[in-house]
Amino acid sequence: xxxxxxxxxxxxxxxxxxxxxxxxKKRPALVYQRNEESLILLRITSHFENKSAKIKKQYYHIDKxxxxxxxxxxxxxxxxxxxxxxxxxxxxVIGQLSLLDKVGLSKFIENFYHQ
Length: 115
Hints:
The protein is an alpha+beta fold.
């Protein structure tokens, strides 16, 4: 069964593998870019306080996290992406960024990559 191509700025849940140990977990992610063949997702996390200053600089705070249907205050990690095939994934749409956060994220990414 084909997974429909998700729209940009939708928040989905997807299984993401850990980078340092075996395994992974289902977590929220933002559909950042898409085409017929792939989805590029940005990880969403609720863990911010214990991160280093360097890592915190790559986290965009989601102002309207409750409106986006997230269970906790959350941040989008713009420093790394996850690429998945556009079809055949078990994705569930759980929310969408507010207009305020879409604009804020766009500005944040522009500033982050053009420092």
